[in-house]
Protein 1
Amino acid sequence: MVKRDVKTSISEGEGDVQVINENGKRSAEDENKDGPKRVRTKSLYRQPTVNELNRLQETENLFNSNLFRLQVDEIIEEVKVKEKTEKRFLQFFTELKTHLLSIPEDDTEYDLSEQTLFKKLKVKLPLSGKLSKTKCMFKFHKFSNVEIVGSYALGCAINSKLRVDLQISVPGETYTKNDSINYRYHKKRAAYLAYIAAHLSKLENIEELQYSYINGTETKPVLDFKPTGKLGNQLSVRINLLCDSDAYKLHRFSPERNNLREAWLFNENSESNTEVGPPTPCYNNSVLADLTATVNQVFLNEILQKSENLKQAVTLLKIWLRQRNLKVSGHVVALLVAYFVQTKRVNNIMSSYQIVRNIWIALKTSDLDTKGISLCKATDTSPSLEDFHKHFPVVFIDRTGFYNICGQMCKGTYLALKRECVLAVDMLDNGKINSFLPLFMVPVKPLMQFDHILRFKNLKQLKESVLAKTPREAQVNHGIEQLPLVTDVVHSLLAKGLGNRVDLIQQLVDNDFSWPVKKSLDKVRSGYEEKLSFGFVLNPENSINVVEKGPPANLPEAEEFRAFWGDKSELRRFQDGSITETCVWEGESMTERRTVTKQIVDYLMKLKFDINPSDLFHISDQLDSVLARKQWASERVLYVDDSSLTALQAFDALRRDLRQLVQLPLDISAVYGVSPIFSYSAPAPALPRATPHNPWQRASTCLVKDMQRDGLASLPEYTPVCKAILELGHSGKWPGDIHAFRCLKAAFHLQIAERLTAQYSLPTQAYATHIDVLKNGLVFRLEIAHAKEITLLKREMQHGVVKYRESEESVRLQCDTVLMPRLRGALHGLHQKHPSFGPTACLFKRWLSAHLLSPPHFPETVAELMTAAVYMHAAPTQPPASPTVGLVRVLKLLAEFDWQRDMIVLDFNEDMSHEEITELEQKFAASPESAPAVRIVTAYDGPMPSVWSRAGPSANVLARARRLAASALKYLDDALMVGHKDNILGMFVPSYAGYNVLIHLHSALVPHSSERVDQPPKLQPLPEKLTEEIIPVVEFHPVTKYLGELRSAYGDFALFFHDLYGGEVIAVLWKPDIKDDREFQLTNANALKPYSAKGETKYKVNIEALIEDFRILGDGLVKHITVN
Amino acid sequence: MKAAKRTQDVKALELQLTEDSVAPHTVYFKEHIVREHTKDKPQGRTLLVVNVPPYADEKGLINAFREAGSVQSVQLCLKPSTADVKHIMRFIPEEKITTFRAAYIVFKKVAELDKALKLTELQPLNSNAHQMQVGIKKWINEYNSSIILPKTLKENVETFMKQFDENAQKADKKEKELEQEDDEGWVTVTKRGKVQSFARSEKVENKIMQKEEKNKKRKELKNFYTFQIRESKMKHIVSLRQKFEEDKKKIAQIKQSRRFKPF
């Protein structure tokens, strides 16, 4: 047994006695002398009690961890229905019950095809027009009891959106023997419900009396209402009707029986009414649900009523399911738990954690779609499981052996459930995260969870065309409930068409519908639309295959393949000699290949159901256009990952060259790339350049020509370099003085440059700090790194003792030359594993920059690490497979992560132990002031945890970024999930409101100005002949230079914001104290001007002069300045 | 004394970039007086100017004060400081920072400083002969001058190394001299001397301390006496308790941020 009230046993001990026992020297007299010390002793060194030992032991054995257990306790406490509410409800229920039972008997018979009943009741029947052709007579028989059932009765209810289920059993004599067919049962049931509704509408202490269809079950409405007053805020009440089990023999509704005549459904001659048609298991199941409810409820009560731990487990599972937005009702969950109790997989002695875990494991390995389970022992009378499998996608048979509890569950839901179980167990087993939070606390929204979402703009058209192409038997089976049928058909088509490209296809149906009892259904419904969409979780490897290989041409399966794919299928011969039927989709670039899923869906919907691609809405590649270069293009549009790949290939060749250099005093032992381009995360990567026209040249590098055209300087195209780090072989001869060391480094640079030119005739330019080398039209910047340089920077003397202390410079050098190469390598690896990582990082950087938070406000590396966090800590979902979804996830992380309290650990190679992580956590918690605003620790940081975010973002920038992210997410949700907007580039347009000064720049001088999202694409062709002899002007970025000067000169007075990717405006925000009076000091007189007030001379910041300075420093670049 | 007559108040005047500048900065200046004057800032002739705008250069300041007389030298630095600037031999020169600076203007004659202190108006920084370099022009120049011929770089390296070697030799020699007994018979112990010593660095010190600690521990007996066993058991429980307490704290924290509301 798990003891609940252990808190008391821990915090209150038998302190005084123990103190003496444990430390004999201390006597009771001095206990008041050293009070505080005693308290500590009391709490930690007191003799353990039996209770406490038990609890500690229990936690070790029965729960994942202490923390997990405490969290479970908390959440259970949180969702529990408050006692006060329970009391109030009980009172309300007694009143309600008395009122309901006072319903008068009525001997009149009503013809339900006429309006007589409505006239009597003044309440509409909850029936759709489709049932009007069913004729029957109805007579009200009084029911005997009203019961509370479901989760509230069992005590595993969740107090948010709490709904108390009441059930009323309709007396068996209401229905005649023949009522079971052609919806007569349902019609009478609806009439009965209307009768109750009419009676209830006279009751005063209820409001919002409504009929509802749950899960689109049009034939079986329920009655919803709320108690008035405070109780109404806490809960609502639902009345469900069921049928006395003696009304019908259950075998009439076996899955193989027909109860809905084909002729009725298709309005054919009614003479053929007697003819028995194909089996209607779905229709049967809907009646069976009412007939068997009592039996199952009794069974559930028997198992769960007295078992606290089982109930807790059910509650936990319900929370988990609700967070995952899975349409599995609490009833099904409770029955599943009951099933596993019955099969002895779980029992009440287990802790709730163990039960939940066992159920996840059991569900993970279950196959309800092929090997159904049953709560009933097989007898001769009940139908076999095979019969059920023939008609239902998921089979879980109830206590009676006739009713399929999962009859309404779509296969997609079941597969999603199974998959979530797998993920849940994985999360539990991952000791490094606090798995509780992602499991129970984080809601999973479709936009987060799926890589690709397919929505239908015109569901009615889809319904019609699907129904037109489905066989009659299926239609008869589903009767007037068409949506489940359509869903099933489309789901299986997509599943077949996409095959192993997707890990999961889940339908997202939104068809719960409620309306007031006094209004007629058809009228209310005209304004309402059901929504159907499908979410895909893509398989990152398979989903980008361009070729769909079918069976070899000579096999019979080939015929089927051809039939399925239509014209798209063609015979192809492959390199291995096989000739097969094949479909080939378009996809030359990586970005195009990501759209293969879309192509397939579009093609299949057109082929099978004649639905135009324009009627489909895909949420998948909306933001790909941001990843395409606008200024340059090769034969086709150039995407960032293509350019990065080109650079990587050139770099690999250069690396080989470097390794083979001879006649160097020290060999080059390693070459590492450090620029973002090497992990595919540069939004505007370097492109190969053509030979400059008429260059001014010094050594092998171009100079910037100081020329003017139309009064503007004409500058060369901005060319970024790709930076790399060289490591040399070991030598003990490096000098022990930092300046001499650097001099020697320069000598090495010179020599390497010389050798590169001599051996491979590559143009090179050596500098004291680096070497520029041209390879394949790209410029690489190499720098020698050596650990000794860092040590020398750290070194300082104190009292004659040499000590090593981190200095700003040493940290920077360590980041650049030691940490960055490793991190870049790890990120490159991450991109190889998840090919959408790079593009996602690009999108995120673009987004940040578009909102003027470009580095140094929000450093690039921090942006990359945040993106990496989305891929490495994807729980509760899986890593995204498309950049658009990736961006959504990063924004979500940014907006919702608790940056103040938590940190993110990026452990690329599983190097960090649990203890190390805990230690870091404590370290940050101990000094919250000195910790950076964003705490992302990588395994490489070593003694400098979260080194990358030390410089930024600051708390203010983080707060702004979070607000922007939250509104961007809302914008995306509105545009994609509610509307059908394909153009969502609006999220990349900044607002300049709120800034004090705007500095407008000449757009011709701003690098990347044509890459901005609001610019039309230029698509200049890339040069065919690349520059081979001369290094172009590189890294000459006038705006960055200007910003650098502004920030270093006026950083004390203002903040400067700019979009790195082509922003033509620099936004300036004064520091809040800019207008305050300052004290004049000789050492601190910057930008002050004197003014006299009340005869005194005071000083304040000379704002006008500062603005004038902005113009002076940006001479030739600044167009004009506006002051707000 | 002449200097005594001079006022110690700081004077403030506006400093324009060109004649038509509308909103100029105000510079503040006074005579540079400290207890010990250095050679480059001689007493009586040096003017200290603060709040010099970021774009001003030496020649510009000479332009500004040209009415006072001829200037011998101008030194720009980040903050006014009395300390003598130490010249460390650097291979890579320090980066120039664009910001407000202080300037020491040394006039050729004492009288010129007096005149400067009485100025009522400064001339603009720019003159026909010399203009401040700002904006695009400056960046282009910076870029172009950063590109140097390999030959020049090689020469730089060689001269620097030569200089460095010379200095190193001098330092060596000095150390050797220290080794000699001084008048009172003291000998300074150095790294290269005959007397063996260990390097005085933090690392070495830590190592020695660790060794000591280890030796101490080795002498102790563990789990030998009953009380020790009892204590170690207690320790285990204490660590469990500690963990429990920590977790409870964490929960309290999470609770505080109301994160247990799942919906």
Protein 2
Amino acid sequence: MKRLQDKVAIVTGGSEGIGLAISCRFAREGAQVIIANRNAANGLHAAQTASEGADHPARFIATDMADPHSIAALVAEVDKAFGRLDVMCINHAVQGVDTREIMDLSVEAWDLAMDVNARGVFLMIKHGAPLMIRSGGGSIVTIASVGALSRSSQPAYAASKAAALAVTKSAANHLAEYGIRANVICPSTIETPARSKIATKGGFKNDVLNITAADRTGPRKLTHVLPRFGKPEDIANAALFLASDESSYMTASNLPVDGGTLRHRMD
Amino acid sequence: MGRLDTRIAIVTGGGSGIGQATALRFAEEGASVMIADINITGAAETRSMIETRFGTPVAIHQTDVSQPDSVQAMVAETVRVLGTPTILVNNAGIATGDSLQLHEVDPAVWDRIQAVNLRGPFLCCKYVIPRMMAAGGGSIINIASAAAVGMAPRAAYAASKGGVVALTRSIAFQYGGKNIRCNAICPGAVETALARQARASGTYKVPIVEALIQRRAEPEEIANAVLFLASDESAFITSDVLLLDGGALRLRKEEILPD
């Protein structure tokens, strides 16, 4: 018996990086995966990748996480195709909007981070929860960030992720009576294509990914205690744990996957 | 293919409750398990359950985790019978004699609770970590309590578990570079012998917390989280304090405190 056998699972932002790793992990554990993101070429390719060796072919549904109508349409389409929803892994995010100095951060950049990263989580829960309730319960897993817990140098990103964390925990209150659990994962620096691209453009001036390869060999340069950076698979494994019945007594909890951060954090 | 194939694990307090469920879950996933418990009858019971259900390598040892000699003997026995341990679950714990009124706590009761709940994990880590370093790494899981991170009704127990959380973070810091991970789990109300004992003694007449999931956890639900933290699926997780409390909301202060 696979750990998500025949569960219907939406993975938002499921086409690359952490999201792709989650889509693949869920699919290989028997889930019917729906990859929801904006870019059709990426999404279709990801669905193909996630389908390899899986019981059910993964599907792609084009969705704009900044658009309430698009999110409602995503859930309606899942309802029409499968008639149920067991897992929502809310992973999508925009990053790299922040500038080095908060004084230079534009209102538009702030709004974009909040619209996609914070409001997008609210809308997914708002529209997805009723279908989950009709399915007899389920599990919501939101991918936030350690930036939500510590003194992040990215104000818009950190604030949006703190909101994602708070709205998920709050939803746990409202949804417990329907057998729906809601938990959060807070990853630290994970090596993904999106981050590498931003780092190459010099987007994160204070970020560990900007240090040279030679610097990385010194463990003191890392912002965490384990001697490597995180991989998308690390987050996917944690998401599998929270999505599956193995975490059946866990709700409104936060699971940092950060290699043991050296930053002070509040939780 | 088990998730802990070829692994050797020590589970303290493995003779009952969360420890027993953990030992069974580990064996189910292919691990060799040392069940260390001061109650040798309980340890033997877990061993026979493992032998019957899974037939995986298993050993038992009568261990008082508060005593260095006893812990050293247990670790040596593990190495001799099963091999080098790379998983340690510090689960043994007591709350015996703790009171809802600090001024009534006998200093000897306080000392015994700290000795088992906090000195015990210290000693087990002290004697197991060198073995883990020699093996290239390992995973330590400390069973703390929701009492360590929230409002706690019993002070001696809460203080000991708060110490376990701090110990967890310090070990994670010290040995992360050696590929030794250390995490804590903070269970809320779990249906164990300890809990039944507390109810029977009249200490608590009602559940002490209101939780979103309106029931006590089964030991197996905690064991699944221990398995996750023991396995390579949590390879990038260290220094975490995992709250497994069913979404606890608040203590029932009026109903459990004396007038």
